[in-house]
Amino acid sequence: MADEQEKVIVEIYGEKHVVRGKESPDYILKVAHEVDKKMRLIAQRLPRLAVHQIAILAALNLADELEKLREEQETLLQLIESPEE
After folding, report:
1. pLDDT of residue 4
2. What pLDDT is attached to residue 1?
3. Residue 2 has what pLDDT?
4. From the centroid of its chain, how far is CA 49?
5. Which of 4, 11, 71, 74 is the most exposed place for a label (fewest CB within 10 A)?
């Protein structure tokens, strides 16, 4: 099943989308829920934005979170790998 693509219908910001991926349907739904949650939070804070602007800001916010986690992971790996003083 690892090589088969799952097909899941998700709803993000009121629109249904078919998502295909190798992950489980639960995982795909979880990721879609995070995107939906981020878009709704941005729309609540900035209600005059167009949907595409909300989507871009959500993508930027999620990419920022990912980059910060990557930097944190790299720092932790360096701490683990560095010889004790």
Report:
1. 79
2. 47
3. 54
4. 20
5. 4
Judge contact between 23 and 6, C-beta under 8 A.
yes
Distance CA 11, CA 64 (A): 23
**What tokens appear for 20 in the block?**
């295909």
Angle formed by the axes of helices 25-45 and 51-81, to 10°?
120
- The model's pTM is 0.84
Burial (Cβ within 10 Å: 0-12, 13-18, ≥19) of residue 42: buried
Secondary structure in 3-state letters for 18-79: EEEECCCHHHHHHHHHHHHHHHHHHHHHCCCCCHHHHHHHHHHHHHHHHHHHHHHHHHHHHH
